[in-house]
Amino acid sequence: MTYGKKGIIFTEYGDYWRNMRKLCSVQLLHSSKVEMFAPLRKEEVGLLVKSLRNSATLHEVVNVSKVVAELIENITCKMILGRSKDDFDLKGLVHEGDVIDWKI
């Protein structure tokens, strides 16, 4: 998740931070990259709508905040890792990385 103890999130403002921000803006968040994942986002939102429709038909209460957070997590996992979050424990991996990083 980070290289050494340098990452864009916790790095102090300076040359390194500006270079990382530029890299993210140009390479990761470029409009062509974002548009490339439009079908994936459309599919995931369609699944969410179908789920909400089924819940409404059954008169079930839905925690919309939780459902939207899961939608974002699903889309992010598929965009970054190319597979569903159900294939592995992403939160566990991130936590493990944080624990290891802090021990160094």
UniProtKB/TrEMBL annotation:
Keywords: Heme, Iron, Membrane, Metal-binding, Monooxygenase, Oxidoreductase. Gene3D superfamilies: Cytochrome P450. The keyword Metal-binding applies. It is found in: Membrane. GO terms for cellular component: membrane. Signal peptide: none annotated. GO terms for molecular function: heme binding; iron ion binding; monooxygenase activity; oxidoreductase activity, acting on paired donors, with incorporation or reduction of molecular oxygen. Its cofactor is heme. PANTHER family: CYTOCHROME P450, CYTOCHROME P450 93A3-LIKE. Belongs to the cytochrome P450 family. This is Cytochrome P450 family 71 protein. It comes from Medicago truncatula.
